[in-house]
Amino acid sequence: MRGFSESDADPDPLRQFDSWYDAAVKAGLFDPSVMALATVGASGQPAVRMVLLKGFGPHGFVFYTNYESRKGRELAANPRVAVTFCWGDLDRQVRIEGTVERLSPAESDAYFQSRPRESQLGAWASQQSTVIPDRAALEARYQAVTERFTGAPVPRPPTWGGYRIMPAVIEFWQGRERRLHDRLRYARQDNGSWLLERLCP
Fold first, then answer.
1. Max Cα–Cα distance, the chain, nearest Å
2. Distance between CA atoms of 26 and 15, rounded to whole angstroms?
3. CA distance 86 to 142
4. Where in the sequence numbering do the catalytic residues fall?
5. What does pTM read for this prediction?
6. Residue among 163, 144, 196 nearest 72 (CA)
7. What pLDDT, in 10s, does the model give residues 60-103?
């Protein structure tokens, strides 16, 4: 099994992520964009859920959600997050730790307008993370917003938008034989550069 050595690693972890993400896409894995997002609210109780990566680059990793959902409320209380990608068929994981910032309204508007109309309507219908009496209540809300926007573009709800994760730590994990896995961790330094270190598995 091919390992992951310091000589293989790009000095920039965002470029290294791009390389591994591209390999996952080319391998035909089921939705490589799925990531586990962990947040911690004011109570100190952690929560994790799967979300979709919708973009990444030099400034970080982007996802979208309802600002008033549990994750949105927790991000408002504590902007620190952790994310894990698991690409099991390649025996690879990527772990990211950092903080989030909201995208600008213009960035969120642009992405919202790229979504299928049904998804746009669903964002209006769902008061994410709130208790509802039954499925029928949700379907009724969807029908109501469908009628409300009949024949018109669906605007972005004010409670919905994007976040950018600004990484402080990015770890690349490559499975190896005898459980002697390769773990290379990049940690951002005060001057903005990245320190690359190998961790014991």
1. 61
2. 16
3. 33
4. 179
5. 0.92
6. 163
7. 999 999 999 999 999 999 999 999 999 999 999 999 999 999 99
